[in-house]
Amino acid sequence: KPVSRERLEQAIEKVRTSMSTTAHESLGDKLTALLSSLPARPRHLSKIPVRRRKHLLLIDVKDVLYSYVKDGLVFIVTSEAQDMVAYRTLDEFASELDPDVFHRVHRSYLANVNHIREIIPLASGNYELVLADAAATHIPLSRQHAKELRRIYKW
Q1: Which of 23, 24, 25, 139 has the highest CB neighbour number within 10 Å of its CB?
Q2: Sign of the C-alpha dihedral, residues 28, 32, 38, 44?
């Protein structure tokens, strides 16, 4: 595309001006600008809203043992109850939780790693997680997700 000499000179002058201004900025100013341009750290849920009859309960995330999907509905399980939540998929629910605490352990299960007591290898190559609740609940751990947990926790 043809460019007029005047517009080219304006563009070159604009670049020179911006380069000379940035050369005078201090390193601290540059770091501050860089840090402020980073996206905010995602906030994770601390309470999960659960509807029981006509009441809306707020369950502490740390009390959730695991979550699972059954017939297209997402459920959470605590030591006291099992409730349905308003999320459409387990992935959607997981995106609201702290990924350092909640891990996908099976295509239908999401586990709170702070409540895992034991990992039992099965003959099929899969595993079973035993949770640290009164019932010693067992949930499946698939081979694929076991590889990820192995990498993270080095076991």
Answers
A1: 139
A2: positive
